[in-house]
Amino acid sequence: MVLLRWITSPFRYGLAVLKRKIGKLGLVRMELFLAFGNEKEIFIKGRIVEAYRQSRPSENKNAFQNIIAAIRRYAGSSIPDVRVMLEYHHLRIEMVSDEEGIFEKRFDDPHPVTNNKEKARLNIIKEPGIQPENEWIEIDILRYASDHDFGIISDIDDTIVVSHATKVGKKFWLSVSKNAYTRRPFPGVSEFYHLISEGGAHPVFYVSSSDWNLYDLIMDFLRYRNIPSGPILLKDLHVNLRNIWQSGGGDHGHKLDKICLLMSLYKEMKFVLVGDSGQHDPELYSEVIQKFRGRVIAVYIRRIDREDKEREKILNRYQPEVQVAWVKNTKEAIQHATQFLLSKKQ
């Protein structure tokens, strides 16, 4: 998959450049994904794509309507070499989209934090062949203290939403035939995340192997199912109509990179990790515990298949330094989290 991406990259890049040069690019859209940080640093990320029309999801949309929406979501082309200007307080920072249309920046901000949510605005710098869809876009920047008590890092597929990630056919059908309002959460998920975050007192970060094309679907799903919102870190993978079925698969090493980013931004914050046994979360979280000793205080793993004693040893060896809970359902996770929070207050 990585090799295919590397081979096709020059062609995708060249096509975008050609369309821009001959004036066939159309309206250009900026999609903002992330804007969060600590008292001194901020990380921001977005993407530049050709504008596409998308209807709002609803419970009444049928499979055909959802498939059309998925086609529109994946048919858009990423646009490289587009300059973006960020304005935040007294700062003006320029970024440039890469071959996948992605732009990102981690920068210092000496401005004193007065609120955990502040606004920045961004615009696409006008150039020949570039016609922005909007003049300016505003985004909330979420600021969390680097020494905050603890935060939550959670997987998404088969952790909060039923995805059948280990079964390619089922996962593909769910991803294209359902929308944010018709995808099913696991029972009790909303209650669990509100409990473990203590009603939003602790930040929740979502890390997934899904691609950025699904960002709006995930955001709408969290909102509709009353699951605490938070920064969503997805995979920087070029997924289009040809390889849409591969979304969420492949190498999950990027999840470790995203978790390392969070660990470096919040150097004194400890974390609760939440995932499932369907793919590589136990092995990934074991690596995180080893790499950042003393930073992980609890791990919750939903068992997707039957009990696997040998595999469970991967995480269980860290007890009692790390509280490890293998649960078959959210009810068991809630019971453990209730005791976990109580023990932290004693």
From TrEMBL:
Coiled-coil annotated spans: none
Concerning InterPro entries, the annotation shows: APP1_cat, Mg2+_PAP
Q: Give the Pfam families listed for this entry.
A: APP1_cat (PF09949)
**Location of the Phosphatidate phosphatase APP1 catalytic domain:** 150-303
- Signal peptide feature range: none
Instruction: Please report the name of this protein according to its UniProt entry.
Output: Phosphatase domain-containing protein
